[in-house]
């Protein structure tokens, strides 16, 4: 049997990693400024994280959700405290797509309606309703396209109101800062009015914090920059620092019933141990403050780079938009400078999503390497 060939792969095979360094099978070290799509939140192989997982797997790694698991309650309590959502409820699953899938299902249950409003360039996952709410025709099969989803441009609130007035919308789903789409975001005025309209028309407001959550932007959740309170928040990526775990954070007015949602692996003992250790490190090492401070430092340095049109995002969820497409630039950074970065649907955008532990020294190394590629090798210039 061979692998189903759906990923274009760089010729690099990581076999070891620590903090913001990835080491390939040949012993070459790479500076990781992408964290495997914003997954690595507290650094590769963080000692507290490693110990928690080792200790847990020696006790019990998994049992079903048909029995008590106090680790789930501990995780919910810790998450509520650090995020400011102590009165909310937590449903644990395995990924961001699954989190969004369950969020949309909950909204449909709650409202008795089925149409969803999403936004241009949105990315919410690759499964059923989640991929239907993703603005990418190439990954939407005919099966997915049966879902009723309306895409609107960001910051056009009157268009949102027009759709709500039709009376069949169960939910609006939105990223506070778009990830795959290219770091675009709604204004505070847009978000605050969107929340008001959702209350007025009985539409569930789902905020997708799968990539932007867990302190990455300099607040626990990126939507907290706008002072809004969503009905549902979805989380994943940085939640487990590499261990598969996702969650749906649900307002108290949405009531649970037995069988409404379910999962085999979600919230298992190992997943909870991983997620708890991440929150503990974020708290004890003040990583949210570090994300804000280091992000500001990055922006101050990157503004001086040649060819940079603008810098998008907040904290350590950043995008450098150039006046040329960046695919060759990314290859040169990987193969010549041994630095991982990310791309986006916007082909001129270089995405920066490092561990929240990263510091000024690593940023300086990146800026120096990038400047060398841009100026000395004249990539795209």
Describe this structure in words.
The structure is a single chain. This protein is an alpha/beta fold and 381 residues long. It has 2 domains: 14-46 and 286-376, Aspartate Aminotransferase, domain 1; 47-284, Aspartate Aminotransferase, domain 2 (3-Layer(aba) Sandwich), CATH 3.40.640. Helices cover 34% and strands 17% of the residues. The chain is built from 11 helices and 14 strands. It has helices at residues 35-38, 47-57, 70-83, 96-111, 128-132, 157-164, 188-201, 269-284, 287-302, 327-335, 360-376, and strands spanning 14-18, 21-24, 29-32, 89-93, 115-119, 149-152, 169-174, 204-208, 232-235, 246-250, 308-314, 317-322, 339-340, 349-352. The protein has a 7-stranded mixed sheet with strand order 4-10-9-8-7-5-6, sandwiched between helices. Strands 1-2-3-13 form a 4-stranded mixed sheet. It has a 3-stranded antiparallel sheet with strand order 11-12-14, with helices on one face. Strand 5, helix 5 and strand 6 (149-152) form a beta-alpha-beta unit. It is globular and about 60 Å long. The N and C termini lie far apart (45 Å). The mean pLDDT is 96.
């Amino acid at each position: 049997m061979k692998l189903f060939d759906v990923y274009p792969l760089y010729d690099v095979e990581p076999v070891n990693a620590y903090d913001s360094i990835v080491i390939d099978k040949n012993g070459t070290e790479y500076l990781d400024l992408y964290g495997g799509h914003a997954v690595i939140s507290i650094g590769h192989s963080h000692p507290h994280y490693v110990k928690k997982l080792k200790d847990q797997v020696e006790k019990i790694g998994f049992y079903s959700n048909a029995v008590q698991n106090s680790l789930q309650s501990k995780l919910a309590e810790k998450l509520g405290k650090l995020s400011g959502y102590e009165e909310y409820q937590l449903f644990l699953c395995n990924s961001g797509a699954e989190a969004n899938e369950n969020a949309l299902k909950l909204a449909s249950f709650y409202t008795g309606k089925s149409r969803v409003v999403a936004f241009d360039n949105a990315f919410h996952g690759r499964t059923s309703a989640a991929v239907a709410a993703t603005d990418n025709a190439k990954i939407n099969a005919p099966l997915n396209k049966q879902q009723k989803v309306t895409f609107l441009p960001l910051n056009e609130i009157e268009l949102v109101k027009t759709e709500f007035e039709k009376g069949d919308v169960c939910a609006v789903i939105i990223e506070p800062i778009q990830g795959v789409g290219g770091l675009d975001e709604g204004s505070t005025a847009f978000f605050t009015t969107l929340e008001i309209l959702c209350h007025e028309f009985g539409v569930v407001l789902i905020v997708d914090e799968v990539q932007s959550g867990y302190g990455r932007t300099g607040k626990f959740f990126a939507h907290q920059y706008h002072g809004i309170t969503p009905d549902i928040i979805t989380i994943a990526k940085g939640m487990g620092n590499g261990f598969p775990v996702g969650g749906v954070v649900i307002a108290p007015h949405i009531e649970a019933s037995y069988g409404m949602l379910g999962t085999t692996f979600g919230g298992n003992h190992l997943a909870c141990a991983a997620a708890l250790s991440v929150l503990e490190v974020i708290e004890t090492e003040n990583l949210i403050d570090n994300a804000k401070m280091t992000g500001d430092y990055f922006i101050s340095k990157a503004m001086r780079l040649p060819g940079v049109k603008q810098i998008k995002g907040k904290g350590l969820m950043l995008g450098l938009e150039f006046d040329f497409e960046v695919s060759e630039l990314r290859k040169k950074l990987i193969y010549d400078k041994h630095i991982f970065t990310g791309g986006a649907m916007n082909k001129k955008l270089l995405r920066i999503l490092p561990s929240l532990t990263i510091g000024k020294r690593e940023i300086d190394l990146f800026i120096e390497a990038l400047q060398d590629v841009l100026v000395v090798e004249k990539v795209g210039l």
